[in-house]
Amino acid sequence: MQIRSDFQPATLILSRLVEYAKVFDNYNIYDWPNLKNKEDFKNVYDLPFKDRNPLEDIYADGRNLAGFMSFRLVEFNDARYFPTLKSFVDSFHGGWVYQIDQLRDVSQAAKDKAQQLANCPWAVDQMIGLFDRQVDILVSIKQCLDSLKENDLYRWEIGQQQSSFQVPEYNKILECIHSVGRMFERLPRTYADKDEEALRDHILVSLESIVSGSATGETFNKRGKTDLLVRNNKSNEFVGECKFWRGKEVFLETISQLLSYLSWRDNKAAVILFVENKDFTSVIEKVREYISEHPNYLRYSSERDETWQNYEFRMNDDSSKIVQVAVMLYHLP
């Protein structure tokens, strides 16, 4: 699932919630109904009401929990319901995520009753195990929500982030570059013979119109001159490097070059690749394959579209410092 662009600063954690939603969806569609309808759970209805009540609660609460989490965990992408990250995070308050102790009581009551029965249905034991696994996932979801509250975007929304150049601005810069790159592709006769400097200058013109600070090219930063540099309030907010695709070695060297330009406070960057090869799809696949071979590579983060992927890298001089690097490809045959 593609994370909405204005939530990109929280992509890693939101992606984890998406994975949890998939688990809950499988539980809701397959596990719970199979245990109830295709196994021996029907024997529960032969028990006296006081005996079957805690066993029915396991199914009812477990299935409801799975159904709810399967869609709520991914609803952040719908701005009609959650216009801000804060509104999404706060929507869980008072709900299942904050009722873990009560859910464990439900599980324990079912376990106690199952032990008292001479012939407890097999499906009940399986349901209790499934229920407990869901509760364990809820614990992890709460950890994710707590982490989101520490995210720069969430803090900005509640007025705790003081920087005048907010993390979402990085997304605006990338969207601007992407728009220019797509223009290059739509007008091949106009840009096909341009060199890196000319293409970079077209990007700079567009960036200058949308950033609140300055956008410059061939600007010295730390250990060299970077192709694209956006500054605001005397600090670097974005560093970009433009290159024509020349294979694996040059690609990995470009990433190293980009990282060498970054100071400790620089953590938002991009590699913009101009691809002349006719087989553009092959180059896209090679980029995805080769990038993990870079020694600073940490993880894949998200995908804006098939020619724009976001990754995380470790900073050269501080492996605990994470750098966001977008890799953007544009076809200029």
Strand arrangement, major sheet? 1-4-5-6-9-8-7
The CATH class of the largest domain, by name, is Alpha Beta
Q: How many distinct beta strands?
A: 9
| CATH level-3 fold name of the largest domain | Restriction Endonuclease
Mean pLDDT: 88
Poorly predicted regions are: 162-167
How many domains would you count in the coordinates? 2
Q: In angstroms, what is the radius of gyration?
A: 26 Å
Reading the helices and strands in chain order gives HHHHHHHHHEEEEEHEHEEE
Shape: elongated
* Binned strand content: 15-25%
Query: What CATH architecture label of the largest domain applies?
Result: 3-Layer(aba) Sandwich
Largest sheet: 7 strands, mixed
Distance between the termini: 30 Å
Q: Helical content, roughly?
A: 40-55%
Oligomer: single chain
Supply the helix-strand structural class. alpha+beta
Task: Tell me about this structure.
Helix content is 50%, strand content 19%. It is an alpha+beta fold and 333 residues long. The chain has 2 domains: 5-157; 168-331, Restriction Endonuclease, CATH 3.40.91. The strands form 2 sheets. It has a 7-stranded mixed β-sheet, with helices on both faces. A two-stranded antiparallel ribbon has the order 2-3. Helix 1 runs antiparallel to helix 2 (49-72) and helix 4 runs antiparallel to helix 5 (122-149). Mean pLDDT is 88; it is low at 162-167.
